[in-house]
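re: ur question from yesterday

yeah so i grabbed the chain u mentioned. its 123 aa long if i counted rite. heres the sequnce exactly as i have it in my notes:
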Amino acid sequence: QVQLVESGGGMVQPGGSLRLSCAASGPILEFYSMSWYRQAPSGQRDWVIKIYNTGTTSVADSVKGRFTVSRDNAKNIGYLQMNDLKPEDTAVYYCDVDLLDDSRLPPARGNYWGQGTQVSVSS
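ran it thru and got these structure tokens back, copy pasting raw so excuse formatting
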């Protein structure tokens, strides 16, 4: 079955950087897009950034110029590079992949979520 595993979270000081990874495994026929969301304590889950299978990206205004997204097609791993981190970036970060799952008959398109990884920015 399709699984997404996130890694790379942690604690950094303001101005620091982190790179999150989202590794997809299982019977994936096609990748359509990967999005990253974040959820601050007692807050809603907000969209952050997205990369399409064409390589086109979309970025939320709150992180524009600081966060970038990329993907290693051969390894089915997506990356969220976060630079110049601010305390307000503190949240649990989730990846969401839109893909075609070959474990179903017929193959079915759907969204799969990672387990989330904590990012804390504090001095």
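noticed a couple things. DSSP finds no helices and eleven strands in the chain. also The CA atoms of residues 1 and 104 lie 9 Å apart.
anyway ttyl
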